[in-house]
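Subject: sequence -> structure tokens, single chain

Hey, anyone have a minute? Need the predicted structure for the following. Not urgent.
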Amino acid sequence: MTGTQEFQLEELRIDPKAGEVVGPGGREQLDPKVMGVLEFMARHAGRVVSRDELLAQLWPNAVVTDDALTRCFYELRRHLSQAGGSERYKTMLETLPKRGYRLNATISRPPSRPEPRPQPVSRRRWVAPAIGLVVAAALLIPISRRFAHPPPPPQSSSVAAALSLSTAARSIAVLPFVDMSAGQDQAWFADGISEEILNRLAQSGSLRVIARTSSFSFRNRPVDIPEIAARLGVTHVLEGSVRRAGDRVRITAQLIAAADSSHVWSETIERKFGDLFAVQDEIAASVATALDAALVVRPARGEAPVNPATHESFLQGEFFYNRRAPGDIQRAVKYYEEAVEIEPKYARAWAALAGAYALLADLGGPTSGDWTTRQNEAAHKAVEFGPELAVAHARLGQYYFRTGDRERGEALFQKALALDPDDALVAGFAVSDAIRRGDPEAALSIQRKLAARDPLSVTQRGNFGTLLFVTGRLDEALAEYRMALELSPQGGWEREFDAVCVLVALRRYDDAYRAIERLPTGKRDFGLALLHEAPGHRAEADAALSRLSARSARVSDIRLADVYAFRGMRDAAFAALKRAQEAISREGSATLERARAWDFHEELRVSPFLNPLRSDARWAALTADPP
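Reply:
Had a minute. Here:
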């Protein structure tokens, strides 16, 4: 196969000259560099190809970062799955952290075909999904299906089809605005402007708006607009800059069409800082008009501050809360507290404070109880001053779940959902509520919508993969775990172990064995111990289990219970889970103990490996709601 000859990748016909991939799902056009990656991987199918090899082959006379290669693989997986009409094409391109990539597929000459060339097949634009928000409430999923033999999901409910992360007719990403101030010290302000405009646009029911996590991931990166739009699946991108001097603010914004990088709309606005809210509304309305999207801005009571100094403190708090560097949550608290000190009835700042206090309480230690008390006070004030603010009710519900009042917590989450079902935090809690009610399919449906808004979030992808896993969509779960690893190769061994578990469930033992090699040395025994039914690996699996059992005091009890349960060792599995439960009771704080207990229940209810234990009489006592 030469660099210009057509070839067959499973069911896909690859035409390097035309830059096309044609398959059951349609015809896809690849950028030259992406096609170059595909050709090179096809010539070396089945072999691990290092990043250095690929960079030397594709960029021989240029200095580029690894990010360019990562983006090529992201695009390649997307186009292959769209042309093939199946997520399984994504899993054929395997990422091996610190080693390179491998194409696990059959490459052949294409069958002869008559002329003229067939007309283009209507294409379905699918992009891989991502997971919904991580929420504080527990995920309690009673799973009725056997893990070893999960029923295949119906084709109509494939993740890609349901999410429809296509380049929709009206879709937009708002990039972080650039700080052009003389002192370059207004990044918090530029971020706040961008996010406020994003939030206003998100109130349009006819416009898909990408979430902050994904849009802001392109900060300070040399990526052009068409690439950003392709990665986020949008037709338009809004970018801009902010220059602040004293009480004067100049904001420049421009709306760009991804198809040809043309400017659809642009404007420079200069106002006093106190007029900032009107400016944000003006920009959002102009963008919505340019995209022919309806936009009704409905500020809830307690959402908008009156004093400009309040708004400044709040935006600084938001900057640190979202950045999450060491010490940032404490910095966020300082600015949020400044905001409510200036304006005591600012409900949105009280809600933000409640969330920050909850994070500090989760750190544990002797001050955990104090932070929980403050969380309670802040959440109640948020609801008092913002009775129509959805996030206020969600934060108060979070407090009640944390302290064990499940009934009141659920009522508040339902209230928040009724007020604003599109709020990301509220939707995340709704996912958790659906799972607690024993309806993982409903949870999956909500998370698909969240995923469409945040396609580059590692957390979203990993958690969504878990829900796909527990509902039996194994191929799609594997694709999500691998994409999470692609986005963050150093994301931790747990995600890699999740991928191993899916491969074992699919009985792809050889692939599982190769994936186990990528686990950290001290964690490989967890994967190896699962291979007791794999031909030729029983002795190795038994030896790994023996090593894990000998180290039981120093390893994850829940992961160890997974292994025991999967191997049919019920007593050992329950003993491991009992140890984990007893460790929680030694937290030293009743409130923190309840919070950890909810986390423990989440682990129990979303692990398919523990399925064999659910019929045992000991299971009900183990999974009873925390007091």
